[in-house]
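Support request, priority: normal
Reporter: lab tech (M.K.)
Component: structure prediction queue

Hi team, I submitted a job for WG repeat-containing protein from Micromonospora craterilacus yesterday, and the status page still shows it as pending. I've pasted the exact input below so you can check whether something in the sequence is tripping the parser. The sequence length should be 452 residues. Please let me know if I need to resubmit or if it's stuck on your end.
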Amino acid sequence: MDDGEPAAGAADDADQEPEPPADPEQVLANYRWRLDPTSLRDVVDDPEELRTVRDRLTDKLAGALDNRSRARLLSLRAVASRVLGDLDDALADGRMALTYAEATGELRRAALAQARLAHVLRWRGEFAEADRLFAEANSAELPDRLRAALHEHSARCCYDQGRLIEACHHFERALDLRGEGDAELLARVRIGLDAIATRAEAGGFGPYPRGWDEILERDRSPVPARDGGQGLWGYADPEGDMVVPARYAEAQPFRDGLAWVRGPQTDRWSLIDLTGETLIGPTYLAARPFSDGLAWVVRDESGWLAVDTAGEVVVPPGFADVRPFRKGVAVVRREGWGAVDRTGRIVVPTRYHGFHTALADGRYVDGFTDEGLAVIDLAGRKGVVDRTGMVIVAPAHPVLLIHPVAFLATNGGGRWGALDRRGEPLIDPVYRNPDEVVAEIEALLADTTPML
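Reply from support: The job had stalled in the queue. We restarted it manually and it finished. Here are the results:
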């Protein structure tokens, strides 16, 4: 254009604001990768478009200051870099994203970051760490659609390793979780099973599937075993050979490499290590296994106290009943039920009549869930607290269940509805049973696809 008068119509064009570029997170959320039928890897048709998305994620990241945003954007950028083949950049972003995600303390956010990092590691051929991260991420407390995606990607990782039976098991589990309601998952699993059939025909199905302990690289500790001759207890290794002699009247399982035992000549419990060496002599009238590096014990009539692995008192005595520490918090009972942290500080006041957490899938958790939520009971009315002591749902409901993305609750008339994770009404209490509410929640989430 020259410095003269604008051409006809140009003024009108100048008055129109250019459309802002699409949000890169929304673009990725709606992205549909093609699955290569041989490698079972994602394929992108237009790499330049994906590079543009990655650049916009970088721009957005520059203004992200909180842990949640940085975890989300870094892990999404890792997804883009992985598909583009920039695996070093993807690895760096994936590890940093996991650090930020774990700092939030949010189960779903950490699981997504673990899965996206595991996917990068799979493409790099670092299978042991990838398998471990996929397994750690797959908590039963996550939404079924995310758990199905984790099993699907675990299957692909096993496929790369030639562990074809194990891959089939993961595909089967994904279908159990989401098969009937997810046509895209069905299509991808069919591609995966066809690839497995082709590879198995050429080279067999590979090694027998591993257990969780092997995948998670957990040591298989000796287990209590009785000597039939003397009637005393020792410990045997996985092959059944006694590795700690049978010399105890009672023996608890090993936790954190330590076990409480009681000799036949005393009513006090001692602590031993994996070799059978005594670390703490006969001291406690009662003892419970270690968890999170702490164990509850009773020394005298003053009640339960918590000690560390050296026997040092960490939480002073004074509790009538206790539950194991879990992610830094333990449920305790004094005048009522509450919770303490690892320093003994009361984080949930001991004023509740119950602390028993029911999940929407029918399971129960004795205390806090992995996500840090618990159902409390006050005079027969249920509510929800988190591990910091914040009351998320006031105790006002006859029945309350924790769902992966909501709380299912009944009203005074026995009808079921749902609250969101802030405790605000989500679904009116008009349903006859919780299954109908879960179906309604699934409908609300119908457009959500986990981006791994």
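Residues 183-203 form the longest helix (21 residues). The first strand starts at residue 34 and ends at 35. Let us know if anything else looks off. Ticket resolved.
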